[in-house]
Specification:
Oligomer: single chain
CATH architecture: 3-Layer(aba) Sandwich
Largest sheet: 7 strands, parallel
Number of domains: 1
CATH superfamily: NAD(P)-binding Rossmann-like Domain
Shape: globular
Strand content: 15-25%
Number of strands: 15
């Protein structure tokens, strides 16, 4: 039996789907009962649970659990707070640190050794744009300003607490360091410092569908590493099965996505008879960061090799998943949060 906490998020739902397809018994937890019903239709058992509430963990089984995947957390993309007007630092620590401790205590008391969580790729922002693949041994170097700052600090603290449980209580905790994760669900719009914005990917897709021009701002050959959600789900499954899984892992495609290549792929996949023209705007600022991560450790420890390394293949599968209709409830729920 595997417990997926935060299963009503898009990564969680894909992960539950993957585990069930492999014959695993899955308990999915979250706070959204409508999406919980979707998970139950997949074949999971759904339990409403808030990781900040200790009493909620009494609903969970005390034996037979092989591992926990912890995806519940507070992210800037979901935070409605403008930090120039208000401050939500305590919220990040309440959810991402105290919540993690509550999960770890549940596991410790019930002899569950394996816990896999996730953290931010921004913890090594100082190593971006250096032209080399960043390894897990890269020292932390992040920004102490902006709407992501306290999130990164809280996830770093959560990782350190997990390592404490590894050493003090002989657990096998690990954390996946994610760049942007692509897949059906979260890319229509996100919060940026408390304000809701349509994402660049969604804008590209909508313009391609209409045949409208697509502007590329700044350097059209900015590159960055990403990962597709199906690879994430596969990685969680593989990591849980390995006794070598331990500590921090980069969890990316290990390849660089070129901005121009991204736009061309979207035009090919989502465009109709009238194809969009690309308009280059070097005069417009583009603050997209450039980075690449090394994937050696995940391959060595649990045999993970990303399947989706071509952006056009990602977009083709993305469109297929979108048109399948099986994630309609997830998309509608996201739209209601706007």
């Amino acid at each position: 039996m595997i417990i997926v906490m935060g299963a009503t998020g898009f990564v969680g739902m894909y992960t539950v789907e993957k585990l069930i397809s492999e014959g695993e018994r899955v308990i999915a937890t979250g706070r959204n009962k409508k999406l919980g019903a979707v998970l139950e239709n997949m074949g999971a058992e759904f339990i409403t649970l808030d990781i900040t509430h200790k009493e909620d963990f009494e609903k969970l089984p005390q034996d037979g659990v092989e591992g926990v995947i912890l995806l519940a957390g507070l992210l800037p993309a979901n935070a409605k707070v403008d930090i120039n007007e208000d401050e939500n630092a305590a919220d990040y620590f309440e959810v991402n640190v105290i919540g993690t401790i509550n999960v770890l205590e549940y596991c410790r008391k019930n002899n569950i050794r394996k816990v896999i969580s996730c953290c931010s790729y921004s913890d090594v922002a100082g190593a971006w744009k250096k032209g080399v693949a960043i390894k897990e041994t890269e020292p932390r170097d992040f920004h102490f300003t902006g709407d992501h700052a306290v999130y990164v600090i809280s996830k770093n603290a959560a990782n350190d607490v997990m390592e404490y449980y590894n050493q003090q209580h002989h657990m096998q905790c690990a954390s996946f360091r994610f760049p942007p994760v692509y897949g059906v669900g979260p890319h229509s719009a996100i919060y940026v410092n408390g304000k809701y914005y349509k994402s660049g990917v969604q804008t590209f897709i909508e313009n391609a569908e209409k045949g409208d021009d697509i502007e590329i701002w700044g350097d059209p050959h900015i590159t960055r590493d990403i990962i597709y959600v199906k690879d994430v789900a596969k990685a969680f499954s593989m990591a849980l099965k390995s006794d070598k899984t331990y500590g921090l892992y980069n969890m990316t495609s290990g390849t660089e996505l070129d901005l121009e290549e991204q736009v061309k792929a979207i035009i090919e996949v989502f465009g109709g008879e009238k194809k969009s023209n690309i308009v280059y705007r070097p005069d417009k600022p583009n603050n997209t960061p450039s980075f690449l991560f090394d994937m050696t450790k995940a391959k060595e420890d649990f045999g993970f090799v990303p399947e989706y390394t071509s952006y056009i293949e990602i977009m083709r599968d993305y469109k297929k998943e979108l048109e399948s209709g099986k994630w309609t409830q997830l998309i509608e729920n996201r739209q209601k949060e706007q």
